[in-house]
Amino acid sequence: MTFRPRRASIVFYVADIARTERFYNETLGLTLERQEGAEPFWLSGKLEDGLEMVFFEMEGKRGDTPAVVFEVSDGGIDDIVESLAAKGVTIVTPVSEAPGGWSADFLDPDGFGLGLWQAENKPRSLK
Q1: Which residue of 16, 48, 50, 59 sits 20 to 30 Å from the alpha carbon of 33, by its own alpha carbon?
Q2: Higher pLDDT residue, 32 or 62?
């Protein structure tokens, strides 16, 4: 299966989501909206060019971000991860539950972390 990403988000894991919300909304003037599906909540906002920024409060992941996460808009995340692994790509996190869907993480040849995210209403496999 060939995956051709059409949309990407930059994802940050932060220590204090409320502090992050104040900084980006009040200091930088970027409008971040509170979202449900992760505790205590998560934030998302779009820049004028359409690039989405996403913030989760999470221990142990800071320093590994920001990460570029490609949306799998048509489904088939399991097939894509299987195809990447068959091509020798290092899979860091296999397909697992994420807010609103499924995600997986992998490395590019230089060790940069990349991710995939797919909405829960899309099929995990298209085979």
Answers
A1: 59
A2: 32
Cα–Cα distance between 72 and 116 in angstroms, integer?
7
Give how many domains the chain has, as a whole number: 1
What DSSP string describes 59-104? SS-TTS--EEEEE-SSS-HHHHHHHHHHTTPPEEEEEEEETTEEEE
Q: Which residue range is the domain that position 105 belongs to?
A: 8-119
> Is the residue at 1 inside a domain?
no
Dihedral (C-alpha) 12, 120, 50, 93: value to the nearest 10 degrees? 40
What pLDDT digit, counting tens, does each position of 87-103 carry?
999 999 999 999 889 99
58 belongs to a structural domain: yes
